[in-house]
Amino acid sequence: MTIHSEYLKRVMETVKKRDYGEVEFFQAVTEVFESLEPVLERNPDIERLGIIERLVEPERQIIFRVSWVDDTGRVRVNRGYRVEFNSAIGPYKGGLRFHSSVYLGIIKFLGFEQIFKNSLTGLPIGGAKGGSDFNPKGKSDGEVMRFCQSFMTELCKHIGADTDVPAGDIGVGSREIGYMFGQYKRIRNEFVGVLTGKDLTNSGSLVRTEATGYGLCYLTEAMLRDAGKSFKGSAVVISGSGNVAIYATEKATQLGGKVVAMSDSDGYIYDPDGVDLACIKRLKEVERKRISEYAETHPKATYTEGCSGIWSVKCDIALPCATQNDIDKKSAELLIQNGCIAVGEGANMPSTPEAIELFQKSGILFAPAKAANAGGVATSHLEMSQNSQRVSWSFEKVDMKLMQIMEDIYANMRDAAKEYGCEGNFVAGANIAGFLKVADAMKAQGVV
Ligand code: NDP
Ligand code: 2IT
Fold this sequence. Notes:
Blueprint (H helix, E strand, L loop, with lengths): L5 H13 L4 H20 L2 H4 L2 H6 L3 E10 L5 E12 L5 E7 L5 H17 L5 E7 L8 H15 L8 E4 L6 H15 L19 H19 L8 E5 L3 H12 L3 E6 L3 E4 L6 H10 L5 H6 L4 E4 L11 E4 L8 H9 L4 E3 L8 H10 L2 E3 L1 H4 L2 H15 L5 H25 L6 H19 L4
Parallel strand pairs: 3-4, 3-5, 6-7, 6-10, 10-11, 11-12
Antiparallel strand pairs: 1-2, 2-4, 7-8, 8-9
The structure holds NADPH dihydro-nicotinamide-adenine-dinucleotide phosphate and (2Z)-2-iminopentanedioic acid (2IT).
NADPH dihydro-nicotinamide-adenine-dinucleotide phosphate binds next to helix 9.
């Protein structure tokens, strides 16, 4: 796909010049621009008001030093980020990623996508993302705590329950959120919902842990249902074995699917009997071990080095839940050849543009990340609501709300695609539906 609009081409050139080298950010912006062409044709106001120029320029970008002391007494230095992208429809909201690959271009692609994702949920939340190039793998609990405290000592100057509410992402789970929440409370002397994804003892919400994976399956099931299909009786391949992958596996299994393969960044396991999720949970959530150990206790399972091979496993439904650009053109070809009928993106931007093009050409049902993984942030908003009211809702209540939100997201992206002449193209539908609400709010707020 290429961009035809002269206006969008000009903005893209500015982005490439101003944000030199941020390749993941360009990828995310290009995909949105490709979807917006029919919207611009119908709304000439968008160009006059500079809506697109404003959308691609974050409202605020904070970059800071994070110094901490390791277990040997040595001082370590990492870089911290918070990119507050857009607050047109609500306080900034989005996760924090701790991974050695983190640099500004990754945080910006994630923050940019978050604007549209959050809008799609129908809830009043703006878009942001943050994180650090700190690598939690192999660090002791004390090291992780000292890093989190140092990170929050700076971050707390910029966030707040009505201003900017971070949550988890890769490398940031309830342990890290807990340490950051404790430090925020100590410095600001406020027990408020400034972070989501807190554990239950810290006023977290039931279902937040499960929300992204469950939401992914609810939306994928809605998409399958519309095509007369379902998870029932299908073979499912899920990349990753972190928070999103684990709870996607749980829900896909509850819905009648059989998850036959999962991975981590070293390799993947294939278990023809369906993966033993209790074992994966123990290895990954409790012991923080590698997935290779699964095969040692499951004789029918095989372990293969290298994570991209997972897409050669035959399946009906593929749920990439690890990281960006996980499914490239070659992996997409393998999935199509092997008869895959649906792809639901649990991770952010897990399919390359070439892979998406192939999926769409081959008629595979394709649910893009902005819609498919929005259940996490939607449930974060439910956590914020409970924190503000000082109440906690039951598991069933939160789960029902999550399910309804995912059904609504599916219907909105499907209907927006149809309205703008690209029926069945859920990438365009999600981008358009997410964009329109933010653009309307920006218009109403004047030039800010
Ligand atoms: P976790 O840190 O819990 O798990 C990440 C998983 O992905 C691990 O299995 C990890 O393997 C694997 N992984 C990470 N980086 C790579 C890599 N470069 N190559 C191969 N595998 C990799 O993170 P989450 O489950 O929370 O996040 C997974 C994805 O879902 C991310 O794209 C995130 O942005 C997205 N997401 C998360 C939400 C949430 O609520 N947590 C909400 C919406 C989207 P290893 O342990 O070996 O590193
Ligand atoms: O990518 C995402 O939507 C997240 N990591 C969750 C964000 C949130 O604020 O819950």
